[in-house]
Amino acid sequence: MSVPTVVADHLSDAEVRALRIADNKLAELSDWNEAALQIEFAELMDLSLDGELDFDLDITGFETPEIDIIIDAASEAAETEAETVDTPDPAAPVITQPGDLWLLGDHRIFCGDALHAQSYDTLLEGETPQMIFTDPPYNVPVNGHVRCGTDGAHREFAMASGEMSDSEFCSFLSDVINRLFDCLPDGGIAMICMDWRHIEELIAAGKAGGLDLINLCVWNKTNGGMGSLYRSKHELVCIFKKPGAPHINNVELGKHGRNRTNVWDYAGVNSFGAGREADLADHPTVKPTALVADAIMDVSHRGDVVLDAFGGSGATLLAAEKTGRRARLIELDPAYVDVAIRRWQEMTGENAVHAVTGQTFDSHSAATNATSELEADHV
């Protein structure tokens, strides 16, 4: 290995001593070239995620939270417009089938039931997620409670969309917590979203399942949603920890520039502006990618596995892509799996690949559409 050097063999002993002092003092007075630093760390992180580095990036003297901020600065500067998501055509054929496992670069999505242990076995293949960010259904009927566009119509969730009794929903949450507890390492964090109607049941299920509630965060939206007496302008996020070890803390009271509180201010998907209605039509409780990305950066390191047992429209997937984590999603509804894949493909320009057949999502989609057209011609 060669190292660039400047040979200064013309200096006197006194000048050498002065140079030693000046060399260190000038470094203190200098500033980083932020753009160049971002490029270097981004390239190193790509190599690290591909397994091509045999060292940790903290040997540079920068800690994980600092690296996150440096790399994320470029993407934050580019995010001047709201997220836009095309509304799925209910008449279009669904590409994904139950039991499908899709590979999306460093990420995976499995179309299956979050209550079944086999879903996690298939998805994780022995991996241990460092953290969980998930947004389970709230057992509230979507139609009549969530507005979108002019007709307000929404596809109901595949489960817990108002059809469960209180006791059934409590049992559902307990089963979910048990699955998540088994996946986490000691000290792992599980961030689970819920609305005000069922936050009590979620907290009770988490504690009964062996998790410690270490905080309760509030997503403070820009505008209120639907409601009777009061329009709901917030959602809640339980911050659970699996006991047995300290959790990762990348905030450290703002030590590295991440000044975070338990009130998270992000625009809601029903805000007025381009793309907001499209987001809402796509998935009634879709979370902003930026919200999930910040949450992920708080308690995990780059390259860590992040699990989402209710993948929905793929906010956790996009957030993991953005922050250099590896997403592992389970989603019961094949139509939402398709949505998440298409959002990731649009974000990255890459193509998802079926884990079994090796066929790309686009080619599989083309074949499915062609078959549907042939069947329609023969009707």
Can you put this structure into words, describing what you see?
This protein is α/β, with parallel strands linked by helices and 379 residues long. The chain folds into two domains: 13-62, no CATH class; 76-377, Vaccinia Virus protein VP39 (Rossmann fold). Helix content is 38%, strand content 13%. The protein has eleven helices and ten strands. A ten-stranded mixed β-sheet has the order 7-5-6-4-3-8-9-2-1-10, with helices on both faces. Strand 1 (101-104) and strand 2 form a beta hairpin. The chain is globular, with a radius of gyration of 24 Å. Its EC number is 2.1.1.-. Keywords: Methyltransferase, Transferase. It holds the Pfam family N6_N4_Mtase. This is Methyltransferase. Belongs to the N(4)/N(6)-methyltransferase family.
In brief:
This protein has helices at residues 13-29, 34-49, 64-78, 117-124, 166-183, 199-208, 276-282, 289-299, 315-323, 334-348, 361-377; strands at 101-104, 107-111, 131-134, 189-194, 212-220, 234-241, 263-265, 305-308, 326-331, 353-354. By secondary structure, the protein is an alpha/beta fold. The model is unreliable at 142-154 and 270-284 (pLDDT under 50).
> How would a textbook summarize the main sheet?
10 strands, mixed
- Briefly note the CATH topology name of the largest domain: Rossmann fold
- Shape descriptor: globular
Task: Give Rg in angstroms.
Answer: 24 Å
CATH homologous superfamily descriptor of the largest domain:
Vaccinia Virus protein VP39
Keywords: Methyltransferase, Transferase
Catalytic activity: a 2'-deoxyadenosine in DNA + S-adenosyl-L-methionine = an N(6)-methyl-2'-deoxyadenosine in DNA + S-adenosyl-L-homocysteine + H(+)
Domain DNA methylase N-4/N-6: 130-341
Family: Belongs to the N(4)/N(6)-methyltransferase family.
